Every structure is written in structure tokens, then in C-alpha cells.
Sequence to fold (110 residues):
Amino acid sequence: MATFRTIGTCAREIIFNVDDNNTLTMCKFINGCSGNAQGIVKLALGNDIDIIIEKLKGIQCKQNTSCPDQLAKALVKYKEDLVAKEEAAKLKEQQLKEKAAATTPAEQEA
Fold:
């Protein structure tokens, strides 16, 4: 489950979940217009997050953003964070391999 603090909208936060298939499986807007939020969620649930981002990014209401736009931004950040975690895990794995390769046979026996 992920949480995104919104900027420039009546909703203050978006709580959501994305499954392993890149599909939005849960989404809830905290505060804001209940009807608008319910509509966004019903339309977005079950869709690939890349499609949601493409359709909602740039929609404006006030302050040059909107609840749909903030959901798109939340999903973009989610993707960026996921990539960063994957890269960090790969780097750590590579460092462990290099460390294991650098040890001498005597160190490995000890």
C-alpha cells in the first residue's frame, strides 16, 4: 500500500495499492469532493497504471492540478520509487558478488 500527499487539491492524500501486474487494485482519496473521488476511483480501479497516468495526467481544476492529475502524479512517483528500489537491490547484489570474488581461498575457508 502506498500513500501520496497531494498538492493543490481539496483531497489531502491518496492511499492506493498496485499489484504485481501493474494494476491499480485499491484507491482512496482523503478529504475532497466525495462524488468526484468515487468517480475517479471507480473508473481507475482494475486498470494498468500506465494507462491511468496517460489519461489523467494534466487534467486541471484549480492551482494547475486536480484530483485526477494528483492520482497520475502519485502513480508516477510510485513507479519511480519502485525502479529505485530495484536498482538498489541490484547494486547490493553486485557488491556482494564482487566482495565474494575478492576474498582469497584462505579467507573463504576461515
Helices lie at 34-44, 49-56, 67-102, 105-109. DSSP finds four helices and three strands in the chain.
